[in-house]
Design a protein that fits this description.
The complex is a heterodimer. Chain A is of the alpha+beta class. Helix content of chain A is 52%, strand content 14%. Chain B has nine helices and twelve strands. Classes of the chains: A alpha+beta, B alpha+beta. Chain A: InterPro entries: NT_sf.
C-alpha cells in the first residue's frame, strides 16, 4: 500500500477551526467594530487570554483603547451611553480599580451576548501614552492609526482629566455595581478552581461593602479604610444593621464557594435597600437580568 | 378618579383577556423554543435589529412568509411541530388572519409605530400570548409601560402608536395572532381588564432631561457614533411619556445641528411612515 502524504492545505480544516474558535470571538469582533467606528479611537489592543490563545469559555474580552488625547474626556463621558445602546451593557461600567495604572482609565462592562453574560474590559488610554503602554503590555494590535498630531496642551488636558476622574470618590450606585462585577469575577475563579485569586477578589468584595456602608452612612468620614467604623456607623439601627452585614461578610470563609457569593450579593442588595435605596434607582431590571444570566451560566 | 379614567382609556389600547392554564403555556413555550422555526428578520425600518418572526398560520402556508397581509390563514408546516399550540388555536376557534411567533432579542426594540395601515379597513384585533419573557421586556403605549406577563391572552390595538423593547434580556417570545372580528372573538373579548398593577405610567421628561439626553446624543454623533446617537434618542420613548413622534423630531433636529439635511429629511419621512401619518 503506498503512503499518501497530504499537504495541510488539502485537509478540510476550515470548519473544524471555525467550530473551535473561542465563543467570545463574535463579541470581540462586534465591540472592536463598534469602537473603531470613531475616528477618535486611534488604537485597539486585545490583551489577556484571547490575545495569548489561552482563552476558555469564561474568559473576558479585554481591550486597550487608544483615544486621541483631545477626545478622551468626551469619549469617556460617552462610553456608558455607547456601551448601553450599542454594546448591550446591562449596567454602567465599573471604574476598574484592579487594573494596573497605564496612564488611562479602566472600565468593566457586563454585556449580554447571545444569551450569556460576558465581561468586557475597556482600558481607555490617551493616544500619546500608547507607545509606553505597548512596551508594558503584551497584546495583539487590532487597530493602529496614530494621530497626525497631538498638541502638548491636549495631552495635558487628558492627563488632568484622568487624574481628576481617578480621584473622584465612588457613589453608592458605583459601589453597588462594583459588587455585581466582582461577583461575576468570583464565580469565574470558583469554576476555574483559582483559589488564591478568589481569596483576593473576595477580600476586594468585602472592601467594596465597607466602602458602600461608608459612602451611604459616613460620606464625610475623615478616617481611612476600616478605622473608626463602629464609632462613625453604629450610631443608629440602620448603621448597626449595616455593620452586622459587614461582620457577616468578613467572618465568611476565606475562600468562597458559589453559595457564599450569592449570599454576599443578597446581603449587599439588602444593605443598599436599607442604607442608600436611591442607588437602586433604574437598576432593578438590570439586577433581575443579571441574576437570571448568572443562573443560566 | 383621573387614574381610573386613564386606565379605562388605556384598556382600549392594551387589555388582558382570558387566563391560560400554566402547564399549557409551559408546553407551548417548550414547543416555541425547540421547533425548527425559520426565523426571519423583516420590517427592518421598524426595528433596531433583533426582532425575528416565523409564521404558524398565514394565507400562503409558508412559515418563512412573515410580511403580514389580509387573507384566510392556514397552518404552516411549522405548526405541525407544535401540537399543543395548534390545539389551543383550534380551541379558540377564531378567524385567523395571521399567526406568528415573534422573538425579541435582548437590547432589541420595535420603535414607536402604528400597524395595520397597509391592510384592508375591516375590524381586526391583535392577540398576544407571552411564552417566554422577562421584566425588562415591555410595551409602551399612551405613555404607559406595560409588561405583558405570561399566563394569559393579551389584546393590543396596534393602530395606536406603540413600541416594544427587550432592554436586557434574555430573549422574549410571544405568539401573536391577528384575527378578524367574529362571534368567537366577541366571546373571547367579553371579559377584558387592565389591572392597575400592570400599567406603569412613564414620567414626563423635563426640558432639562431632554436637553441632557440631546447633548449626550450630540456627543456620540460628534465622536462618529451616529447610529448610537439615533438609538439613544429613539430609546427615550421607553423611558418617558412623550408626545407622539417626539423621538423622531429629536433625531431630525440632531441632524440639523450636525448639518446633515439629507438625514433630517430621511427621519422626517420615517416618522410619517412609521406613525402612519397622512402626507
Amino acid at each position: 500500500m503506498p503512503t499518501l502524504s497530504l499537504a495541510p492545505a488539502e485537509l478540510r480544516l476550515a470548519e473544524l477551526t471555525e467550530a473551535n474558535q473561542p465563543s467570545q470571538l463574535p463579541l470581540l469582533t462586534r465591540i472592536a467594530g463598534l469602537l473603531s467606528a470613531s475616528a477618535a479611537v486611534t488604537h485597539l489592543l486585545v490583551r489577556g487570554s484571547l490575545a495569548s490563545g489561552t482563552a476558555d469559555r469564561l474568559s473576558d474580552v479585554d481591550f486597550i483603547v487608544g483615544v486621541h488625547d483631545r477626545d478622551l474626556p468626551a469619549f469617556t463621558l460617552a462610553l456608558n451611553d455607547l456601551m448601553t445602546v450599542a454594546g448591550g451593557a446591562l449596567l454602567p461600567g465599573w471604574r476598574d480599580t484592579i487594573v494596573a495604572d497605564l496612564g488611562g482609565i479602566g472600565f468593566v462592562f457586563l454585556v449580554q451576548h447571545e444569551g450569556k453574560l460576558q465581561q468586557v474590559d475597556l482600558y481607555l488610554a490617551p493616544a500619546s501614552q500608547i507607545a509606553t503602554v505597548r512596551r508594558k503590555v503584551a497584546g495583539k494590535v487590532l487597530l493602529d492609526r496614530p494621530p497626525a498630531e497631538v498638541a502638548p496642551e491636549q495631552t495635558e488636558r487628558a492627563t488632568a482629566y484622568v487624574s481628576e476622574l481617578l480621584k473622584r470618590p465612588k457613589s453608592c450606585a458605583e459601589l453597588l455595581i462594583e459588587h455585581l462585577v466582582l461577583a461575576v469575577l468570583l464565580h469565574k475563579r470558583i469554576r476555574r478552581g483559582q483559589r488564591f485569586i478568589a481569596y483576593a477578589e473576595w477580600h476586594l468584595l468585602h472592601c467594596a461593602t465597607k466602602d458602600l456602608v461608608k459612602a451611604a452612612l459616613a460620606p464625610a468620614s475623615r478616617f481611612w479604610g476600616w478605622y473608626q467604623l463602629r464609632e462613625e456607623i453604629a450610631l443608629t439601627p440602620i448603621g448597626r444593621a449595616c455593620l452586622a452585614d459587614l461582620d457577616a461578610a468578613i467572618t465568611s470563609p476565606a475562600v468562597p464557594d458559589a453559595t457564599d457569593v450569592e449570599a454576599a450579593l443578597d446581603r449587599v442588595l439588602a444593605l443598599t435597600e436599607r442604607a442608600c435605596p436611591d442607588a437602586l434607582d433604574g437598576l432593578s431590571d438590570a439586577i433581575t437580568a443579571y441574576r437570571t444570566y448568572l443562573e443560566l451560566a | 378618579m383621573e387614574e381610573a379614567q386613564a386606565l379605562r382609556g388605556l384598556s382600549g389600547q392594551i387589555a388582558q383577556l382570558d387566563r391560560l392554564d400554566e402547564t399549557l403555556i409551559e408546553r407551548m413555550r417548550h414547543e416555541a423554543l425547540t421547533a425548527p422555526a425559520p426565523w426571519k428578520a423583516e420590517y427592518g425600518e421598524f426595528q433596531s435589529g433583533g426582532w425575528w418572526t416565523t409564521s404558524l398560520m398565514n394565507a400562503s402556508g409558508e412559515a418563512g412568509d412573515v410580511l403580514i397581509a389580509d387573507g384566510s390563514a392556514r397552518s404552516t408546516p411549522l405548526l405541525k411541530h407544535m401540537p399543543t399550540t395548534a390545539g389551543l388555536l383550534a380551541d379558540l376557534g377564531l378567524s385567523y388572519m395571521w399567526v406568528r411567533l415573534a422573538r425579541l432579542e435582548a437590547n432589541a426594540f420595535l420603535w414607536e409605530h402604528r400597524d395595520y395601515n397597509e391592510l384592508d379597513q375591516v375590524e381586526r384585533h391583535r392577540l398576544h400570548i407571552p411564552l417566554h419573557t422577562n421584566s425588562s421586556a415591555f410595551l409602551v403605549t399612551g405613555g404607559t409601560k406595560v409588561h405583558m406577563a405570561g399566563g394569559r391572552i393579551w389584546r393590543l390595538t396596534p393602530t395606536y402608536a406603540h413600541g416594544v423593547c427587550n432592554l436586557l434580556g434574555p430573549g422574549r417570545i410571544h405568539l401573536i395572532a391577528d384575527v378578524y372580528a367574529d362571534d368567537a372573538y366577541d366571546r373571547l373579548a367579553r371579559r377584558t381588564q387592565l389591572h392597575p398593577s400592570v400599567a406603569e405610567p412613564l414620567p414626563q421628561a423635563s426640558e432639562a432631561v431632554l436637553a441632557e439626553r440631546f447633548a449626550a446624543a450630540r456627543r456620540l454623533a460628534g465622536l462618529g457614533y451616529i447610529d448610537a446617537a439615533e438609538q439613544l434618542l429613539l430609546r427615550l420613548f421607553y423611558s418617558f411619556a412623550l408626545p407622539e413622534g417626539t423621538v423622531y423630531d429629536l433625531i431630525a433636529d440632531l441632524h440639523t445641528v450636525l448639518g446633515d439635511s439629507e438625514a433630517n429629511q430621511r427621519w422626517t419621512t420615517a416618522k410619517a411612515k412609521l406613525l402612519a401619518l397622512a402626507s
